[in-house]
Structure formats: structure tokens, C-alpha cells
Design a protein that fits this description.
61 residues; 0% strand; mainly alpha; 3 helices
Length: 61
């Protein structure tokens, strides 16, 4: 029994692992949504092209 107690996660590690797994699950669900919905694809492709245009306008003169 002592070996099991030595391998327990600390409360901070438990919170970090919960947040990390929640972020991964949300990102996976959002990714599937974007891949399957043509309207979401159009929306996000427009947002990414706007962002790329912003970055180019900042760095390219």
C-alpha cells in the first residue's frame, strides 16, 4: 500500500492535469466541428487570412 501512496499526484498536479485534459478535449471537439461544417471552415479561413494579413502588414514594409 505504501508504494501506491507515494505515487499519488499533488493537488496542484491534479488541477494542472485536469485543465490540460479539458483543453485537449475542447480543442479536439472544435477541430472536428471545423472540419465537418463548411460554414465553420469559411469563417475560420477568413479569420486566419485576416490574421495573416495583419502579421504581414506589421512585418513587411
Amino acid at each position: 500500500m505504501n508504494a501506491v501512496n507515494d505515487r499519488r499526484l499533488s493537488p496542484r498536479a491534479s488541477v494542472i492535469s485536469f485543465v490540460a485534459s479539458s483543453v485537449l478535449a475542447t480543442a479536439a471537439a472544435t477541430g472536428l466541428f471545423v472540419l465537418l461544417d463548411p460554414r465553420a471552415q469559411a469563417y475560420w479561413s477568413g479569420r486566419f487570412s485576416d490574421f495573416i494579413g495583419l502579421v504581414r502588414s506589421i512585418f513587411v514594409r
